């Protein structure tokens, strides 16, 4: 797509994107990281990768062994 556009059109698109981005509210990484860590800790009790999946609800467990005679 960019090959079909002139330099002026590309610059105009970049300017429009930057104008959108400048309106976004920004927060310090220290605050955001703390909030993310707290959220992960509260959700960890329900996380199947941490807690594990009960055998009766695991759709991927082996249904039965393969017997070759």
From TrEMBL:
GO terms for molecular function: G-protein beta-subunit binding. Residues 53-69 have a biased composition (Basic and acidic residues). Gene3D superfamilies: Transducin (heterotrimeric G protein), gamma chain. It comes from the Eukaryota. It is found in: Cell membrane. Its main location: membrane. It is a lipid-anchor. It holds the Pfam family G-gamma. Residues 1-69 form the G protein gamma domain. Residues 50-69 are annotated as: Disordered. GO terms for cellular component: heterotrimeric G-protein complex. Keywords: Cell membrane, Lipoprotein, Membrane, Methylation, Prenylation, Transducer. GO terms for biological process: G protein-coupled receptor signaling pathway. SMART domains: G_gamma, GGL. PROSITE patterns: G_PROTEIN_GAMMA. G proteins are composed of 3 units; alpha, beta and gamma. Belongs to the G protein gamma family. Guanine nucleotide-binding proteins (G proteins) are involved as a modulator or transducer in various transmembrane signaling systems. The beta and gamma chains are required for the GTPase activity, for replacement of GDP by GTP, and for G protein-effector interaction. PANTHER family: GUANINE NUCLEOTIDE-BINDING PROTEIN GAMMA SUBUNIT. This is Guanine nucleotide-binding protein subunit gamma. It comes from Triplophysa tibetana.
